[in-house]
Design brief:
Protein name: Maltose operon protein MalM
Distance between the termini: 70 Å
Order of helices and strands: HHH
Length: about 120
């Protein structure tokens, strides 16, 4: 144990934190915002809200069986119709449900429909 006094940390409600990051030349590191930002967002350190209740662990994901062709066609048609009506939110929900059930073509159907090729 070094013979030095323990450091004293003063607490404050606001401040500025600067980090200097260094990496070796063979690695790839993104430093900074991924997308453009007009100003840095404030960061809150500490507990400002009521303590959260721990969420139960999610059930293990069961590998779904292959989807029936009729079911696959139903979801693809429903996705195309929702995009055609401008209801992208509904199309995304259908896409999520189809993939959860094992669809292999719902994502490509959604993408081609949004691009106007579906």
């Amino acid at each position: 144990i070094p013979d030095i006094p323990d450091p004293v940390a003063r607490h404050t409600t606001d401040g500025l934190l600067k980090l200097k990051v260094k990496t070796n030349s063979s690695s790839s590191v993104l430093v900074g915002p991924l997308f453009g930002s007009s100003a840095p967002a404030p960061v809150t350190v500490g507990n400002t809200a009521a303590p959260a209740v721990a969420a139960p662990a999610p059930a293990p994901v069961k590998k779904s069986e292959p989807m029936l062709n009729d079911t696959e066609s139903y979801f693809n048609t429903a996705i195309k119709n929702a995009v055609a009506k401008g209801d992208v939110d509904k199309a995304l929900k259908l896409l999520d449900e189809a993939e959860r059930l094992g669809s292999t073509s719902a994502r490509s159907t959604f993408i081609s429909s949004v691009k106007g090729k579906g």
